Amino acid sequence: MSHADTLGQTLALPCGTTLKNRFAKSAMSEALGTIDNHVTPALERLYGRWAQGGTGLLITGNIMIDRNHTGEPRNVVLEDERDMALLKRWADAGKSQGNDIWVQLNHPGKQIPRMLASGDTLAPSAVPFGKELKSAFKTPRALTEDEIFDIIRRFATSSALAKKAGFTGVQIHGAHGYLVSQFLSGHHNRRTDKWGGSLENRMRFPLEIYRAIRAAVGPDYPVSIKLNSADFQRGGFTEEESMTVAETLANEGLDLLEISGGNYENPAMAGARGVRESTVKREAYFLDYAQAIRQRVSTPLMVTGGFRSAQAMAHAVESGATDLVGIARPLAVEPDLANRILAGQEGVISRVTPRKTGIKMIDEMAMMEVSWFSRQLHRMGKGQDPKPDESVLLSLFKVVTEMGIGSFKTRRLRANS
Would you tell me which of 39, 162, 212, 213 could form a disulfide with 83, CB atoms 3.0–4.6 Å apart? Predict the structure, then answer.
């Protein structure tokens, strides 16, 4: 079987939905909402471009469930029907070629930069960030139980709204150190009530979110979770714990498990940091975990991070380690990547390479490379093509400027609301 034949296969999910191929766009933070967190036509254009490019499953970037708690400037918030017309156009664009488009739902917990936090940040426990990030983030306040139940309700409400708008599924963001991930981590969650302590208690939060969403959308609507294989932090979420959580959700009827890892303090998801050298060489960062969890669950799996060639993508599917190939940054510069591979064009995705300026101090900034890829999403949101040779310094300057202005205005709007 050729690489194209392998990756062009459909995939049936437990709920009855069938995905058109094995390519999935993993969530990236587009930052294409308004400064006060509403939907814009740029999202319709961007996802229409990806739909035309052939990727079978498109998962949106962080959509927040609470307007008072957003993780990045210009996140979209979905908590009521005020943007329903634009949401429907966004969903229609994303499924225009028989694709599926799922909303990734998130609450950032304490991962709200200080410049965006207009009030308390919330977390399972009042555990601050480590010294490297402490100045950038507030020490959070521990959630009350009533607040926990309110957040669970918000996930369900946002899911029902996503379904009404025409999105074809939802994903719970349970990775990368956001609130669900914080509850799962013994480092961040030091509660002594039924929401903390044992793993059974720590995983109660995502389990109740899943159950509330399922009740809101019904049995035939895809519900997924993005879960850390581990957070690579002492006293934190371990691989064995992750597998137990995955098994528990699988037994509840989960439709897809996307595997990632790390958090802001240990960002394995941003590159190869914290990942075995042998794994980096074979491209996909979390395949070892996927192969282990495959022995314990039958739920379809999606591995995201590191894929850079059609050969590696097809091998991962053929080996049974994953069912879907999760792709993010390559689609920022090659929006038609799926169509290209399905047409038999082999080889390495050469344009997805580390972006460097040659200035050490700048090249070591985590935001520098992210900014470059963000700029490509913004270009497509304007109806333009990606620009693989765009200056890294120019991209960084434009993104920082936009974020600074947006953050200031957002704080002012919140203060006046």
Answer: 39
| Of 273 and 222, the one with more pLDDT | 222
0.85 surpassed by pTM: yes
pLDDT tens across 42-57, in order? Answer: 999 999 999 999 999 9
Q: Which two tokens stand for residue 91?
A: 């969903």
Cβ-count burial of 1 within 10 angstroms (0-12 exposed, 13-18 middle, 19+ buried)? exposed
Q: Which fold has domain 3-352?
A: TIM Barrel (3.20.20)
DSSP 341-403: HHTT--SB-TT------S-HHHHT-HHHHHHHHHHHHHHHHTTPPP-TT--HHHHHHHHHHHH
Can you say how many angstroms the Cα of residue 278 is from the centroid of all Cα atoms in its chain? Answer: 25
All structural domains of the chain with their residue ranges = 3-352
Interatomic CA distance for residues 263 and 246, integer angstroms:
18
- Tell the residue number behind the tokens 């400027």, with chain if given: 401
Phi, psi of 63 (to 5 degrees): -110, 125
The first and second tokens of residue 381, run together, are 């949101």
